[in-house]
Amino acid sequence: MPIDTPRRARRWRKAVVRACLAGVILVVAVVVIANVVVVARTSDRVTTDADGLEDAQVAIVPGSHVRADGSLGEVVAERVEAATALYEAGTVDKVLVSGDNGTTTYNEPDAMRDAVLAAGVPPEDVFTDYAGFSTWHTMRRAREIFAVETAVVVTQGTYAARAVDLGVSAGIDIQGYAIGDDGRWVRELLARVRGLGEAIWRPGVTGGPEIPITGDGRASWATPRGSVHRELSGTS
């Protein structure tokens, strides 16, 4: 006797609904677990109090949007200001700005560096990383290219836990200085899933010759300015 077509269709729809529901539950579980792990592993390393930070070699400033005229966007301007304040207070000895310079028309590191210099930090104490394409790239290159051992990563509270977790995974004794909240929490909740994966599997990043953070920061500056795909000190 043939199976009733409407009944078969109902069974198929129920199976699809169950599969979709299971998929949603799995995704939610992964996101929740990743966030719990990242926050738990970094809660004692993140602070909003500059006076609570231990002295470190360098303030690491991850890149963010730079406007077409070369001026800093609000997020990265806040980071640069806080990092220079840490330098002035003697909490850090150097400032490392790390961002995206993947094309000849977009250059986060030079814009950040110029802002740090304008704030009065001596040129020899300002380092640039032109291959900071993500937080993981920034942290691993800080350790492998710039030989950073101790650091304070300066970023908004939204991103601080993930940045610190990646820094620890890269081999840095790192603290997070959280300087406000830009409100992009939904995006960050998802980004922590990728970040935890990077912390576990440690994917490769752009290499290059070592430029120790204990040396002169000007050795890391691009001459002339341009894309990271051109011949730059500290990148390949």
TrEMBL record:
The chain crosses the membrane at residues 15-38. CDD domains: YdcF-like. Residues 58-172 form the DUF218 domain. One of its GO terms (cellular component) is plasma membrane. InterPro entries: Cell_Envelope_Assoc (IPR051599), DUF218 (IPR003848). Keywords: Membrane, Transmembrane, Transmembrane helix. The keyword Repressor does not apply. This is SanA protein. PANTHER family: INNER MEMBRANE PROTEIN, PROBABLE PERMEASE, INTEGRAL MEMBRANE PROTEIN. It comes from the Bacteria. Residues 212-236 are annotated as: Disordered. Pfam families: DUF218 (PF02698).
